[in-house]
Amino acid sequence: MAELINMPRLSDTMEEGTVAKWYKKVGDSVIEGDILAEIETDKATMEFESFQEGELLYIGIQEGGTAPVDSLLAIIGEKGEDISKMIAGDESPADEKEVKTEAVAEETATVTMPSGVEVITMPRLSDTMEEGTVAKWNIKVGDTVAEGDILAEIETDKATMEFESFYTGTLLHIGLEEGQSAPVDAILAVIGDKDTDKEAVKAALSSMSEADVKSQAIKETAPVVSTPEAVAVPKPAPVAQAPKVNLNTSGRILASPLAKKLAEEKGINLNNVAGSGEGARIIKRDIENFNAPAASVQSFVPAGVEGVTEIENSSMRKVIAKRLSASKFSAPHYYLGVEFDMDNAIAFRQQYNTIPETKISFNDIIVKAAALALKQHPQVNSQWFDDKIIQNHHVHVGVAVAVEDGLIVPVLKFTDEMDLRQIGVTVKDFAGRARAKKLTPTEIEGSTFTISNLGMFGIQEFTSIINQPNSAILSVGAIVKKPVVKEGHIVVGNTMKLTLACDHRTVDGATGSLFLQTLKSYIENPITLLVS
User: Is 276 helix (H, G, I), strand (E, B) or coil?
Assistant: First the structure.
């Protein structure tokens, strides 16, 4: 009799798991002790073995898919056994005359498909990714594709990543043009035999529902992978249009984010560009092929005409809005402001930077000081859950970096164990790759505390929204030279204002204040950073 296999609880804090890899596929024989899959938890990736024997009849969570503990992971039973009611949530045996098993149904759904066809869907390349944008295609329709070839560059909410093929064949169809965005699991491309009957593919697709397509998609979380097993009707190639000024009465410009970025870099006015994309949308090739008109666009637009520029929200901007709104309205924020004497820190940095091939910033000093202070105050280095508070004994400091589309937070793992020079080199590397959208998912995940510094922009004081699931974020202002009182005398000194935003559910006012006192002792006596 068939048995349900649920997502196991592999750690005491695990609430959900991600299938990193399946070692078995539907139809394979399974014996007790076989490794079924690798499950990624909140702490590690672990092998998950079978305690049952039989045939793998159904897979409920595809590779890259995440689900809560006890969700249906797989079903093991006898070959041909009816498991339709088990999939539907009724674990009682199904009548022999009812729906066939998932494996049989899956074969029936694809029996009319031409052989050798593989469909690539938009992969989930980060834990927060909901949609992706095709920044660049490296292969065009009709080209031969080998396993490992880079098909495209995909822009997510966090980075732009190369996306490689797991298949060999011919690129038969491209579902998204450069600059176009689509949700995870949307059709990206189709690869198959060169002589594939495209009409047969269309006929098979016409009988498939959206759920059928999605159920076949295998999602990947690694940044250089592709995803198979779903199909969509190929879209007709865009029809070339006669050049025209792409300006309507409302002033709205239809252009992809990538096209807008390229136009800005090249100094091209989008009002002068004819769009060849769907609905006359301006895409990358329109910018690359654009020849500027002899007359300025100003000659077309009379003075006093109202106009707007409509900017499509990037994946990153959408996620920033979603996560910060959730943080602001779910976590009860409060703020603690302090002002530190920076005279000793200035002298310390000057002397430290005399070491050959060494250059640290004031931000590096603050990052190191915060990491050491967090080690002493685990209440601030914590996370809130409805049924518990987790105090982290490791310190992973996220450093906010401004990028073109918004903000990204690369994470320095085990920051308290790094020296100042290591922090300086790592932060500089992360910042450069963040702006180039070349950070990997592992480099932007797992922070336990965040630092946001706007001092380099001349901002003296500000507050930040907590980067959940962190319990606090430190806002750092500029160093200001001003009159201060020292030993009863007014002298010229250097000060810096910092603001700690705290989640009142995890960090009480006194707790946050004690943390800032410890931070103050490190920053105002920076020699202690070398001996702690």
Answer: coil
Backbone angles phi, psi at 349, to 5 degrees: -65, -40
Query: Which residue is associated with the tokens 């409920």?
Result: 60
Q: Tell me if residue 502 falls in helix, strand or coil.
A: strand
- Which among 75, 80, 103 is positioned nearest to 3, based on CA atoms? 75
Length of the chain: 532
Task: Output the six-digit token pair for 402.
Answer: 């401004």
- Residue 299: both structure tokens together: 């000659």
Q: Which two tokens stand for residue 480?
A: 């200001």
Whether the CB-CB separation of 187 and 231 falls below 8 Å is answered with yes
Residue 341: burial class (beta carbons within 10 Å; 0-12, 13-18, 19+): middle
| Three-state secondary-structure class, residue 410 | coil
User: Amino acid identity of 464?
Assistant: S
CA distance 9 to 68: 9
- Written as one string, the DSSP assignment of 319-334 is HHHHHHHHHHHHS-EE
Q: What is the pTM of this model?
A: 0.50
In angstroms, the Cα distances linking 185 to 109, 115, 377 are: 18, 22, 43
Query: Which residues are annotated as catalytic?
Result: 504, 508
Q: Terminal CA-to-CA distance of the chain, rounded, Å?
A: 62
> Which three-class secondary structure state does DSSP give residue 278?
helix
Per the structure block, which two tokens stand in for 240? 């070339």
* Neighbour tally for 131: CB within 10 Å: 19
- The amino acid at residue 375 is K
8 Å CB contact between 56 and 5: no
Give per-residue pLDDT as tens, 101-127. Answer: 444 444 444 445 677 788 888 887 766
The C-alpha angle with vertex 203 and arms to 200 and 209, in degrees rounded to 5, equals: 135
168's CB contacts (< 8 A; 6+ apart) are: 145, 146, 147, 191
Domains and their CATH numbers in the chain: 3-110 (2.40.50.100), 118-216 (2.40.50.100), 239-312 (4.10.320.10), 316-530 (3.30.559.10)
* pLDDT digits 0-9 by tens, 468-480: 889 999 999 999 9
Q: What is the rounded CA–CA span in Å between residue 182 and residue 462?
A: 36
pLDDT at position 282: 85
